């Protein structure tokens, strides 16, 4: 007997509709392709994409010059190091030892190569009976700039030091043709290249990676919290269905325009950022013991970063609707991670990532977090830039979000016709 209830569709019937597959299939393929290109394209060959990597070069050699030469040997070494690097790869900053230490302590250089004060005297002694030690070149690392960045700089400085040792060895061997065989072996490669930490960081810092993962937590917390607020508010106002397991409901639609809805979401996002910031610090510092100086400053900076990311997500969701979460994912995660400079320095990535790093939010937040955690919260260690860019992002999120919702409201593009309660 007919009941008036239409027959229910079967899964097989639905799956045979090719239009059902079209949009999800195209978007899934594009997302997988673009994510693969973005993430793998920035990490595969960092040494081949070096571009003006800042490394300090210190010539502290006080002489005296070797016989027949007018200047201490350190000056020749420094000149040869600067000239021996392929153009554009390294930005050698020729400074004194105190200036190099200051640059290491503020994260402005990734490492340093130092010619010590007694270098010429020690080299000259090798061809006499006065030799008591091998001459030394110091390769200083800066783990606070990130383990890979510091490692790349260390490789560059060590290679330069070994090239200098080989060149000095040729000069010494030519100057002492009658030296015994064992002595000639020493003269052929006379310099001892020693690697030291130029600016040590604390023990519980993940070898310089804690700043990156802490930054990632802030961005993810802001992103996820904003999306939870976005979906929760839409459900509470009756503009989205609520489904929890098998239970489905829809609340009466509340008559409210887009601008007021965005205001509600942004205020809730800002309020909840207090909670997320506190929980992140409680977990990472209080429970796990991450080394973190300047706790009040770190909390304020973390809160500002979470709020700015969250407001940006709300603005994008308001502008793009159901596609907003995908767009926000690309802005704050997909494009931001490979251009953050927190794991692989931007100077070792293709130019596209260096371009993104100029404005992508994760890059700015990572610079501020790194300055607070590793470089004594110095303004020129990246903290000033981070604050400025967070402020810019905050303003852009507000202006963009409310400009779009105001435009939609003026055009009468309402989300849904309200139904009586």
Automatic annotation (TrEMBL):
The chain crosses the membrane at residues 20-44, 211-229, 270-290, 297-320, 326-346, 386-408. Residues 29-391 form the DUF3533 domain. It is a multi-pass membrane protein. Keywords: Cell membrane, Membrane, Transmembrane, Transmembrane helix. The keyword Transcription regulation does not apply. It holds the Pfam family DUF3533. InterPro entries: DUF3533, T7SS_ABC-Transporter. It is found in: Cell membrane. One of its GO terms (cellular component) is plasma membrane. Belongs to the ABC-2 integral membrane protein family. This is ABC transporter. It comes from Kitasatospora griseola (Streptomyces griseolosporeus). The lineage of its organism: Bacteria, Bacillati, Actinomycetota, Actinomycetes, Kitasatosporales.
């Amino acid at each position: 007997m007919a009941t008036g209830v239409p027959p229910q569709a079967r899964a097989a019937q639905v799956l045979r509709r090719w239009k059902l597959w079209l949009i999800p299939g195209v978007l899934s393929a594009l997302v997988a392709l673009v994510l693969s290109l973005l993430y793998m394209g920035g990490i595969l060959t960092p040494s081949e994409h070096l571009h003006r990597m800042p490394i300090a070069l210190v010539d502290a050699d006080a002489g005296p010059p070797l016989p027949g030469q007018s200047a201490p040997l350190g000056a020749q070494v420094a000149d040869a190091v600067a000239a021996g690097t392929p153009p554009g790869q390294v930005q050698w900053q020729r400074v004194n030892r105190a200036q190099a230490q200051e640059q290491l302590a503020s994260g402005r250089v990734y490492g340093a190569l130092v010619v010590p004060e007694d270098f010429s005297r020690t080299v000259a002694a090798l061809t006499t009976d006065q030799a008591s030690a091998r001459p030394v070149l110091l390769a200083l690392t800066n783990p606070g700039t990130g383990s890979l960045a510091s490692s790349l700089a260390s490789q560059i400085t060590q290679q330069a030091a070994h090239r200098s040792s080989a060149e000095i060895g040729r000069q010494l061997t030519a100057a002492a043709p009658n030296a015994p065989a064992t002595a000639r072996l020493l003269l052929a490669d006379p310099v001892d290249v020693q690697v030291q930490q130029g600016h040590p960081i604390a023990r519980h810092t993940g070898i310089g990676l804690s700043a990156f993962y802490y930054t990632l937590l802030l961005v993810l917390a802001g992103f996820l919290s904003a999306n939870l607020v976005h979906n929760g508010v839409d459900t509470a106002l009756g503009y989205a269905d609520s489904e929890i397991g098998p239970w489905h409901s829809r609340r009466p639609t509340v008559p409210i325009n887009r601008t007021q809805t965005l205001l509600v979401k942004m205020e809730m996002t800002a309020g909840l950022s207090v909670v997320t910031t506190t929980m992140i610090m409680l977990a990472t510092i209080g429970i796990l013991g991450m080394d973190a100086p300047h706790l009040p400053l770190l909390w304020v900076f973390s809160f500002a970063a979470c709020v700015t990311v969250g407001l940006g997500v709300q603005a994008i969701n308001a502008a793009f609707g159901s596609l907003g979460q995908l767009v926000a994912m690309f802005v704050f995660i997909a494009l931001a991670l490979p251009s953050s400079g927190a794991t692989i320095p931007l100077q070792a990535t293709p130019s596209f990532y260096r371009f993104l790093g100029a404005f992508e939010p994760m890059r700015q937040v990572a610079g501020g977090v790194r300055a607070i955690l590793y470089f004594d919260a110095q303004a020129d260690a990246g903290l000033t830039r981070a604050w400025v860019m967070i402020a810019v992002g905050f303003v852009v999120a507000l202006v963009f979000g409310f400009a779009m919702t105001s435009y939609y409201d003026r055009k009468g593009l309402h989300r849904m016709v309200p139904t009586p309660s």
